[in-house]
Specification:
Blueprint: H1 3-8, H2 16-26, H3 31-45, H4 52-68, H5 74-90
Amino acid sequence: MNNDDRDTLHPVTATEDHVMATHDAYERPSLAGDATREAKGMFSDGMKHPSTKPVLTGAAVGAVAGILLPFVTLPLGAVAGAGYAFYKRVRP
């Protein structure tokens, strides 16, 4: 690079907005934020939401497991199955 090229180059600087956007892009979203967003979507869209059917299937599988396993009741199994399926939808 000769001296003539250095005179035509402009310094590159990052603005505060650009630095924050880049930092946010590499930051992993929180589990609570993702779960809240997913639950709101499920409640607002109902059966149209892509996570509703797998979570209901997980609840059904958990309920069957709750019937078959000793010391586990049907509601506890359903909640555990739905919770596991919901977690796997949020964090695959």
